[in-house]
Amino acid sequence: MKDQFYIVDADVLITAKNRYYAFDLCPEFWESLSYHHQEGRIYSISPVRTEVFAGRQTEDLVQWAKGEVPQTFFRIVVGTEDVMEAHNEIVEWVTGHERYHDEAKTAFSSTADVWPVAFARVHNAIVVTNEQSSPKSRRAVKLPDVCNEFNVEWVDTFMMLLSLGVEFGMNRDDS
Predict the structure, then answer these.
(1) Which residue has the higher pLDDT, 147 or 112?
(2) CA–CA separation, 160 vs 164, rounded Å?
(3) Distances in whole angstroms, Cα of residue 65 to Cα of each of 148, 161, 169
(4) How confident is the model at residue 74 (pLDDT cuts 50, 70, 90)?
(5) Among candidates 8, 11, 72, which has minimal Cα distance to 44?
(6) For residue 140, what are the contacts with CB-CB under 8 A and spacing of at least 6?
(7) DSSP for 12-68?
(8) What was the pLDDT predicted at 76?
C-alpha cells in the first residue's frame, strides 16, 4: 500500500461530525485527518467539498473544511479526462444495471457518490466509506458494491484509522 492513499467520502466526514468524532468530543480525529493529509495518505475530493459546504456556514464541519484543513485536502476531480472517463463508465454500469430501481440509479448518479470510486480507480486509491456492501439491494447503490465491481479497494473509517496507526488520547481532569 506504499503508493496508495485514502479518499474519504462525504458520509465519513458528516457521520464523524454528527456522532462518534464530533469536534468537541474528539478533536484528535480531525487533527489526524490533517496530519495524514500532510503525509500524503488522506484526501477527499472536490465534489465532497461541495457537499460539505452545503451545510450551515456556522457548522463545525464547514468551518473545518474552509479554514482548518489545507485546501489541498479536497482534490479537484471534475474536468480531469481520465477521472471523467471512469465516472462515465461507472454511471453507465449503474444505470444499465437491472437490479437497481430507477430512483436508486438517479440518486447515485446525481450525487457526489460516484466520484470517489472514479478517482480511486484512476489513482489506485482506497475509498473510505461508512456504507456496507449490500449486493442484493435494489433501493440504493452502495459504494462498496460499486468499488467491488470496478476492483477498487474500500474500507470503513475504523479500518483506515487502524491502518494509519491513529490513536486518540484521554484527557483527565485531575482537579
Answers:
(1) 147
(2) 6
(3) 29, 20, 23
(4) very high
(5) 8
(6) 104, 107, 108, 134
(7) HHHHHHHTTT-TTT-HHHHHHHHHHHHTTSEEEEHHHHHHHHTS-TTSHHHHIIIII
(8) 78
- DSSP assigned state of 3: T
Query: How many CB atoms lie under 10 A from the CB of residue 39?
Result: 10
**Hey, how many other C-beta atoms are within 10 angstroms of the C-beta on 68?**
15
Cβ atoms of 69 and 34 within 8 Å: the answer is yes
CA distance 76 to 36: 18
In the chain, the N- to C-terminal Cα span, in Å, equals 45
Amino acid (one-letter) located at 158: F
Give the list of residues 6+ apart from residue 110 with CB closer than 8 angstroms, or none: none
Question: Sheet of 6-8: strands edge to edge?
Answer: 74-75, 42-45, 6-8, 126-128, 154-155
Q: Is 81 helix (H, G, I), strand (E, B) or coil?
A: helix
Q: Is the pLDDT of residue 129 over 50?
A: yes
The tens digit of pLDDT for each residue in 12-41 reads 999 999 999 999 999 999 999 999 999 999
